[in-house]
């Protein structure tokens, strides 16, 4: 991750501010950069969530707003470790190390970033949001609203995958088949299902620092490494 990337001096406090920050990151990176590929996908999804926050789509929009902001700030914090590669969170390290590697397709970078963000950051964001709002993951409408994001992701994932494939790539069936086979075993919704289970486990040990640290260490970057194999 480049040390010149724009990162906020303080955490963002609104979803529109998070969108503006993602747009700034996009403007600072060449389109082929692996981080830029993820940032485009994340920006698209965040814009869709933001468009629904005031439309009655979520039962508890205040909770979902807080969650979206906390989630985005974890991404910005990862970007902020650019100047110290060893400080890049382990979940993000495969993408940080491979973002300029030839032979890795944009869709692979995008899904590897989504894997890191969902697998590692989402449970942390859920727990911090519940703590800040004096609630619990399994209280009220939180799980139902969490699942509603899956509906938005279902609509966005295929179009984003297609937008990340160049016309030249779309013409090379054998190459695309290899990429498709590589990423077929990983889906955003499956990752979010796992993240919800990990949220409940993280919530259970939230007041036990040693157990919490050990649990977070289990949220490894293995899937990201597999997604980032050059084909």
Major beta sheet, specifics?
Answer: none
Q: What share of residues is helical?
A: 55-70%
Number of helical segments?
11
Tell me the strand percentage band. under 5%
Point out poorly predicted stretches: none
Give a structural overview.
This protein is an all-alpha fold and 231 residues long. Helices cover 67% and strands 0% of the residues. The chain is built from eleven helices and no strands. The protein has helices spanning 15-28, 34-52, 61-79, 93-98, 106-132, 142-163, 167-171, 173-183, 188-204, 209-217, 222-227. It is globular. The two termini are 23 Å apart.
Summarize the structure.
By secondary structure, the protein is mainly α. It is built from 11 helices and no strands. It has helices at 15-28, 34-52, 61-79, 93-98, 106-132, 142-163, 167-171, 173-183, 188-204, 209-217, 222-227.
């Amino acid at each position: 991750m480049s040390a010149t990337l724009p990162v906020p001096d303080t955490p963002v406090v609104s979803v529109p501010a998070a969108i503006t920050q993602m747009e700034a990151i996009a403007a600072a990176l060449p389109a082929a950069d692996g981080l830029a590929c993820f940032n485009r996908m994340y920006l698209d999804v965040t814009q869709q969530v933001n468009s629904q926050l005031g439309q009655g789509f979520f039962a508890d929009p205040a909770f979902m707003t807080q969650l979206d902001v906390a989630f985005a700030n974890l991404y910005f914090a990862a970007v902020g470790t650019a100047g110290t590669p060893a400080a890049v969170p382990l979940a993000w390290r495969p993408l940080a190390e491979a973002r300029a590697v030839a032979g890795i397709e944009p869709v692979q970078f995008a899904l590897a970033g989504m894997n890191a963000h969902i697998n590692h950051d989402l449970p942390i964001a859920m727990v911090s949001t519940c703590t800040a709002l004096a609630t619990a993951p399994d209280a009220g409408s939180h799980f139902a609203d969490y699942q509603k994001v899956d509906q938005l992701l279902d609509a966005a994932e295929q179009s984003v995958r297609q937008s990340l494939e160049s016309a030249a790539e779309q013409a090379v069936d054998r190459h695309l088949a290899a990429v498709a086979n590589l990423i077929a075993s990983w889906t955003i919704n499956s990752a979010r299902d796992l993240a919800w289970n990990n949220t409940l486990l993280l919530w259970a040990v939230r007041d036990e620092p040693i157990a919490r640290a050990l649990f977070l260490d289990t949220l490894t970057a293995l899937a990201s490494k597999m997604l980032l194999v050059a084909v």
